[in-house]
């Protein structure tokens, strides 16, 4: 479970870094005046806006990781232990009969019995393990497709949210840049007038 969360977090971080590369460049440009001097006021302002942007991205990443974590905890606590699911899929065989045989008499022991013991410990109906086993063996391809579809959907949502936030931040960074350029031109004009007098 921790490996899945760390993988999702790493993917989210890589996506965030990819979206941030040009945005950080814009923020750095905003800190430099036309005369190539650095404005402290602009630096603090850009740090404030960049911090808000990163906070929004962090919130999205943490929300996504939280949702996945809660889903995995619910599955692990109420449906089937994740360790048993991992062991079952590590023994995968396209032939359902061979797969079922590996689960019952494979190198990891009787996984079917482990699930029955876990289910009995939870006070579930004794037929529950058999029902889950039938669902798994008859619909494993559908379950796999649904799981992959959910992962792809979460990835697409994440990319869309990051893209939207980055566009918003970029638009406001460019608006600040225009305002800074106007101020810089006025400042240069004033300096030239003072030099001419």
Any overview of this molecule?
With 197 residues, the protein is mostly helical. It has one domain. 85% of the residues lie in helices and 0% in strands. The protein has helices at residues 2-30, 40-79, 82-90, 96-105, 111-121, 128-196. The N and C termini lie far apart (73 Å).
Number of strands: 0
Q: Give the SSE string.
A: HHHHHH
Share in β-strands: under 5%
**Main structural class:** mainly alpha
Whole-number total of structural domains: 1
What's the total helix number? 6
What's the topology here?
Layout: H1 2-30, H2 40-79, H3 82-90, H4 96-105, H5 111-121, H6 128-196
Helix pairs in contact: 1-2, 1-6, 2-6
Provide a quick synopsis of the model:
With 197 residues, the protein is mainly α. Helix content is 85%, strand content 0%. The protein is rod-shaped.
Q: What labels would you give this structure?
A:
6 helices, 85% helix, rod-shaped
